[in-house]
UniProtKB/TrEMBL annotation:
Record's subunit section: Part of the cohesin complex which is composed of a heterodimer between a SMC1 protein (SMC1A or SMC1B) and SMC3, which are attached via their hinge domain, and RAD21 which link them at their heads, and one STAG protein.
Region (Disordered): 1-72, 1024-1052, 1158-1178
GO MF term set: chromatin binding
Main location (coarse class): nucleus
Source species taxonomy: Eukaryota, Metazoa, Chordata, Craniata, Vertebrata
Protein name: Cohesin subunit SA
Pfam families, sorted: HEAT_SCC3-SA, SCD, STAG
Length: 1211
């Protein structure tokens, strides 16, 4: 058996164990029990050390069902044990039973078959012969198998793709578990089979070959798990035997059976001996495999170890759930690979889920709670989700463990753009704020203002307001939907809070709280009816199940029945509040309109129409009027019987508005009279209402084009027309043309209508062109936007898709219009933000106004770039746009010099532009090879063109351009990277290569980008961190492959090709090699420890203390791992893994990047916001999703590729 003297037992098996198993009498086979009863102390004399094997004679016969160690099944062709498990066609139980029968007949042959099984499961083509098994030690066998390993591929069964190999892993693990279970009564105690297997797996787990190490570690961990189960059963049997013995001994002498007492003593002694043997086996595996492999260089191996130790602690908590084993999970939570951190969290979840284990986790929780809280912001979303779920379980165990600061760090994640993170945070929030009920809440009514839900709804509103993200109510509701949908769908309580008067002594909701409550109510209604998350949280609409569809229909019916009655009352109460009314008017869009008829709710419909009419008459805000327009549009559905009633009400309202507008306009435009402010306000308010309705309703029968065109023409002639009137008149006229185009496109009009539309469109475009020269910036921006939209709509592409009849409507801008559009862009977009006084109305100190102005300029640029992309204007105008970016970059360099902040928003903006530009080159690197090569060549020359004005020793003036140029390095072919690197070194001096100051970071970054991927040593151990399919074996040198894709033959006389060919022969000057970062170098133990605080609690072993006491100077040099010696390879000492924290503060991020680390913290990507002024605490990120322009903006960069080479000389 395995009873190494140096391995001290850490497993303490208690005398009592809580279990449902009450007796061990059925756990042993009768013949095995009898055999064991006859075993005495003499049976222990043949005990062997873990590294020894029994040297038995040759096989005397083959096992039953096996021929030459091969498995025979139903007379089929012989298959090895590996092939049987791989095929998975035979039941694992029968395969194991077959092997056990073979082992009983000849254990050497059977054991040799098992050894070859592990070797073949590692992907090794070699096999251990009987001669090798008899005369060679394990280390020699492993060395021999390593030499015979297939070197042509880094794949092995555990990493191979395909359904067969995916199933193989589970079959492999199941085989080991069943093997131990079937052998637990006799064979595992024979001091031969387990000794040999554990010795082999321990040796393989220390191999330099990744396949051996990975497979043997998985086998050893599953073997350990099976042994833990055996130890648990033995502990249960010992407890039962002890109780039986105590009960028998406590009997009076007359009734006491001495024979039974002796049998029980003998049985307890045998169980204790078996437990000692199992304990030694587990110690050998734990200290021989786990302690070394949980710090392995390969993430998958580390994950296996952490996953299994979690199983041990959960399965046999009395022996394993203590700080001696929990420390490994705590240390590994700082692992640099997400999958390992994920296994740590899932292992801890299984422990915290059992509340009976909470007292044993108190010390661990106190030491590692901060780390778990920080992992809620992990860069890996899966890790963040599990960290939040773990904190929810911690919250279940005790309310006092997590502080208010800990909880607040989780609360704000309900607004995360990643839905699983938000949902997990929503569950945490719900458990913390809503799940605790006091005794005074037990007798509350189920619904209404005084109900328990009423209080919880108010709590939700208070939280929403405290988060100060008022425009993101939909995201809060979505986060809480899975755990609190019943609360959010309590419409009666919500309406009662809004309409009912507060009870005496009850504090009424403030105006701000009522506004937030209405928004949350609207978001809940939308979530119930649409059944999909808000924008930014889903990849698309998923197909609903039958149950979800039924729930959706039931919710929609209930919403209609409740709000059809309550909505008119709510509108009447809040009719003067624009924000509340805007949200309330969106509710009818989710109604089932049939309920108005079937539920006899026509009187409530009449009341609703009256309230909407009053809202239109009271308000002039665009949002309110558009909400009224959309409500009429939703109610005017010809499929329902209420259509006529709603259509009549709508027509009456529009008739009055148009008549009033024409009457006011006639008086307003009378010659010789100066219009007063009251007349202008009346015209503007009426025009706003008409424009809002014209957006969703066809008002063609009222001929609004003539009146609006007359209004615009008068404004041009007199020059004193109020800007808002001009803006809304343009918008209304634009709607008129679009509605007429829709009628013509549908074929529901005659030829005269097309002629009229053509005249109106051209006259209107000419009018907008004339307004481009207006003195008012807002008017010019409106004219420019509408012009761009009109030119896109009426471009040559409108005749596509079989609409040739629209060809007479095509309008191509002349050269004068194109020039005016380009001049507008140059004058109003590419300007300094501080000079943009008109577009921000003098509020330059207001940060939100600056951001809105930036949005506006981006949208203007996007509108113009669409014209370039679709060939509406001349393609060469793109060069003028690109020149502006080059000008801004040069100005920034001249203003800031070479020592500017590379993390500034302006520099990051240019770098982001370069990244987008690089994406336009596509995936085919051969097509763009010349263009990319010339881009790098000219970029390098530009970067070193201007020397530093401070003299030698300082970086060139334009060196920062290399940071921009590095965005294009990924588009280079591998051989071209070397060529470009050679060309770069021609401009560098020896001193430049030695520089490491911040001002030289662009050069360092650019060189690293050219060297990335140059040395593809997939056999390196370190490749395991970056590639799952890599191997740790050293590859032999291979000749260059002749099967690589070749460049097409042709003329190679272009500048780029000549330059690339020429650079292949350039002699490289003597340069210092760039340092290669590795995560397995020896490091200072102080830096290795994630936390210093727990060092006193989790005591180190003597090996750790010796390692800790090494002189500091020994760790100052980064020494590569030597895999030829066990002492220094693969992190042998029993201490924390060499891992690094993935969390980073924003202040240290740039410094950490300079160290070569790229582990970034997950940022909360808030969805697009309309109300930036309410988010003053958020710093503007000019390239976050909320501030970036339309997706089509980035498309314009595709036109630059054809012009960049032509404009380089000009710039």
């Amino acid at each position: 058996m395995i009873a190494a003297q140096e391995l001290h037992t850490e497993f303490q098996f208690p005398q009592e164990a809580d279990t449902q198993l009450s007796s061990d009498t059925d756990l042993e086979e009768p013949d095995v029990k009898n055999a064991k009863l006859g075993k005495g102390k003499g049976g222990k004399k043949g005990k062997k050390a873990p590294g020894e094997k029994g040297k038995c004679g040759a096989a005397k016969g083959a096992g039953l069902g096996r021929v030459n160690g091969h498995h025979r099944e139903n007379g089929m062709e012989n298959m090895t044990l590996f092939e049987v498990v791989k095929m998975g066609k035979s039941a694992t139980q029968s395969v194991v039973d077959d092997w056990i029968e073979s082992y009983k007949n000849d254990r050497d042959i059977a054991l040799l078959d098992l050894i070859n099984f592990f070797i073949q499961c590692s992907g090794c083509k070699g096999a251990v012969s009987a001669e090798m098994f008899r005369h060679m030690q394990n280390s020699e066998i492993i060395r021999k198998m390593t030499e015979e390993f297939d070197e042509d591929s880094g794949d092995y069964p555990l990493t191979m793709a395909g359904p067969l190999w995916k199933k193989f892993k589970s079959s492999f693990c199941e085989f080991i578990g069943v093997l131990v279970r079937q052998c637990q009564y006799s064979i595992i105690y024979d001091e031969y089979m387990m000794d040999t297997v554990i010795s082999l797996l321990t040796g393989l787990s220390d191999s330099q070959v990744r396949a051996f190490r990975h497979t043997s570690t998985l086998a050893a961990m599953k073997l350990m798990t099976a042994l833990v189960n055996v130890a648990l059963n033995l502990s249960i049997n010992m407890d039962n035997t002890q109780r039986q013995y105590e009960a028998e001994r406590n009997k009076v002498m007359a009734k006491r059976a001495n024979d039974r007492l002796e049998l029980l003593l003998q049985k307890r002694k045998e169980l204790q001996e078996n437990q000692d043997e199992i304990e030694n086996m587990m110690n050998a595996i734990f200290k021989g495999v786990f302690v070394h492999r949980y710090r392995d260089a390969i993430a998958e191996i580390r994950a296996i170890c952490i996953e299994e130790i979690g199983v041990w602690m959960k399965m046999y908590s009395d022996a394993f759930l203590n700080d001696s084993y929990l420390k490994y999970v705590g240390w590994t939570m700082h692992d640099k690979q997400g999958e390992v951190r994920l296994k740590c969290l899932t292992a801890l979840q299984g422990l915290y889920y059992n509340r009976e284990l909470n007292t044993r986790l108190e010390l661990f929780t106190s030491r590692f709670k901060d780390r778990i809280v920080s992992m809620t912001l992990d860069k890996e979303y899966d890790v963040a989700v599990q960290a939040i779920k773990l904190l929810t379980l911690v919250l279940h165990s005790s309310d006092e463990v997590l502080t208010a600061e800990d909880c607040e760090s989780v609360y704000h994640l309900v607004y995360s753009a990643h839905r699983p993170v938000a949902v997990a945070a929503g569950e945490f929030l719900y458990k913390k704020l809503f799940s605790h009920r006091g005794p005074e809440e037990e007798g509350m009514p189920r619904r209404g203002r005084q109900s328990l839900n009423g209080n919880l709804i108010k709590t939700t509103v208070f939280f929403f307001l405290e988060s100060e993200l008022h425009e993101h109510g939909a995201y809060l509701v979505d986060s809480l939907w899975e755990c609190a949908s019943e609360l959010l769908k309590d419409w009666e309580s919500t309406i009662s809070l809004l309409l009912d008067e507060p009870m005496p002594g009850e504090e009424a909701l403030t105006d701000r709280q009522e506004t937030a409550l209405i928004e949350v109510m609207l978001c809940a209604v939308r979530q119930a009816c649409e059944c999909h998350p808000p924008v930014g949280r889903g990849t698309g609409k998923r197909v609903l199940t039958a149950k979800e569809k039924k729930t959706q229909l039931d919710d929609r019916t209930r919403i209609t029945e409740i709000f059809a009655v309550a909505l008119p009352l709510l509108l009447a109460k809040y009719s003067v509040d624009a924000e509340k009314v805007t949200n309330l008017l969106q509710l009818p869009q989710f109604f089932d309109l049939e309920i108005y008829t079937t539920g006899r709710l026509e009187k409530h419909l009449e009341s609703l129409l009256r309230q909407i009419r009053e809202v239109v008459e009271k308000h002039t805000e665009t949002d309110v009027l558009e909400a009224c327009s959309m409500t009429y549009h939703a109610l005017c559905n010809e499929e329902f019987t209420i259509f006529n009633r709603v259509d009549i009400a709508r027509s009456q309202l529009l008739d009055e508005l148009v008549d009033k507008f024409n009457r006011l306009l006639e008086d307003f435009l009378q010659e010789g009279e100066e219009p007063d402010e009251d007349d202008a306000y009346q015209v503007l308010s009426t025009l706003k209402r008409i424009t809002a309705f014209h957006n969703a309703h066809d008002l063609s029968k009222w001929d609004l084009f003539t009146s609006n065109y007359k209004l615009l023409n008068t404004g041009l002639q007199n020059g004193d027309m109020p800007e808002q009137i001009v803006i809304h008149a343009m918008q209304c006229t634009h709607y008129v043309i679009l509605w007429n185009l829709a009628k013509v496109s549908e074929g529901s009009s005659n030829k005269g209508d097309m002629v009229t539309l053509r005249k109106q469109m051209r006259a209107f475009c000419l009018m907008c062109q004339r307004y481009l020269t207006s003195v008012n910036t807002t008017v010019k921006e409106q004219a420019f936007t509408i012009l761009c939209d009109a030119l896109m709509i009426f471009s040559h592409q409108m005749v596509s898709s079989g609409r040739e009849q629209l060809e007479p409507l095509i309008y191509t801008p002349d050269s004068s219009l194109q020039a005016e559009l380009l001049n507008f862009i140059l004058d109003h977009v590419f300007i300094d933000q501080d000079d943009d006084n008109n577009s921000t109305d003098g509020q330059q100190d207001d940060e939100a106004s600056k951001i809105e102005a930036l949005h506006k300029r981006r949208n203007l640029l996007a509108a113009y770039c669409k014209l370039i992309i679709y060939n509406v204007v001349e393609m060469n105008t793109g060069a003028d746009i690109f020149k502006q970016y080059m000008r801004l970059f040069n100005e920034m360099l001249s203003d800031l010099g070479c020592n500017f902040d590379r993390s500034s928003s302006s520099f990051c903006g240019i770098k982001e532009l370069a990244r987008r530009f690089s994406l336009t080159f596509g995936l085919d690197q051969l097509k763009t090879r010349e263009a990319i090569a010339m881009l790098h060549k000219d970029g390098i020359e530009f970067a070193f063109k201007e020397p530093s004005p401070q003299g030698e020793g300082n970086p060139p003036l334009n060196l920062a351009f290399l940071d921009i140029l590095s965005e294009f390095s990924s588009k280079l072919l591998r051989q071209d990277k070397k060529t470009v690197h050679l060309y770069l070194e021609r401009f560098m001096t020896f001193q430049m290569a030695l520089q490491r100051e911040d001002c030289w970071l662009p050069l360092i970054s650019y060189r690293n980008s050219l060297q990335a991927g140059g040395d593809d040593d997939t056999m390196s151990v370190m490749s395991g961190y970056s590639s799952r399919g890599s191997s740790i074996r050293s590859k032999k040198a291979k000749p260059a492959s002749t099967g690589k894709r070749k460049l097409p033959e042709g003329d190679c006389s272009t500048d780029a090709q000549v330059w690339m060919n020429r650079e292949q022969n350039v002699q490289t000057p003597v340069m210092m090699p760039s340092p290669h970062l590795t995560s397995t170098v020896l490091r200072d133990p102080k830096k290795m420890r994630p936390e210093e605080s727990y060092m006193g609690v989790y005591a180190m072993t003597s090996e750790q203390q010796q390692h800790q006491a090494l002189p500091a100077q020994q760790h100052h040099h980064q020494t590569p791992m030597d895999y030829n010696r066990r002492g220094s390879g693969l992190m042998e000492d029993d201490e924390e893994p060499i891992v690094e924290d993935v969390m980073m503060s924003s202040e240290d991020r740039l410094e950490d990047l300079n160290e070569g680390m790229d582990f970034d913290t997950m940022d909360i990507d808030l969805p697009p916001s309309k109300n930036r002024r309410e988010r003053s605490e958020l710093k503007p990120d000019y390239f976050d999703p909320s501030s970036i322009m339309d997706d089509s903006v980035g498309i314009y960069l595709s036109i630059v590729m054809s012009t960049v080479l032509n404009i380089e000389k000009t710039i």
